[in-house]
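Our preliminary data section would be incomplete without showing what the modeling component actually yields. Below, a chain of 234 amino acids is followed by its predicted structure, encoded as tokens that our downstream tools consume directly.
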Amino acid sequence: MLKKLLALAFAASLCPALAANEAEIRKTMEERLGAKVESVSKAGYLGLYEVYADGNIFYTDEKVSAIMVGGQLIDGRNMKNVTEERLRKLTAIRFADLPLERAIKQVRGDGKRVLATFEDPNCGYCKRLAKELQKLDNVTVYVFLYPILSEDSLRKSKQIWCSADRVKAWNDWMVDGKLPSGREDCDTSAITRNQDYGRRLNISGTPTMFFADGERVPGAIPLARIEQKLAPVK
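Predicted structure:
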């Protein structure tokens, strides 16, 4: 019992110091990065601290004497990408919070499984993804038009959104290469709002996918990986 109490007392004595360190690191990093720091925590490797700011993970020591920018922290024991795993957790959202009314909704089969994507109509990887998603069944796919590549991307997005059948117009272009045509002067505020929303989520590339558990996956990934993510949690 005495040993247990001593251990608890020792751990408690460290908490204020750790909190102070994290507060100091947050303050210093905000000054040096010129951005709001969302979180500071022990990385668990080499005495480093993980600093999450502006949609990115940085690493530093307790004195902020050096800052690692854009690096990937790999666990040498199992070669797991620690940075990538942490980013998935830190950038996760609540799927129910997505403004689904501003997306093109495609339902296949019973539609029970759900997936949301942010896509630019001129994105080659998005076209590859669109073809792959055609192979899925029993799924509802929400496509958010997110034109970030060019003015032509915005024009195509508006034409697709203004189409009488948005799903058909989207698939005609993304899957079959049939150019969208027709008006682009309907209410396209959904697209502008998607752009603003995506920027708030730090979505800087397309496609970016969100699954039911809120996990964000940037880029086109193999269909097998998508199926795995869509599988119900047992």
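The longest helix spans residues 2-33. The two ends are 40 Å apart (CA to CA). Preliminary results of this kind motivate Aim 1 of the renewal.
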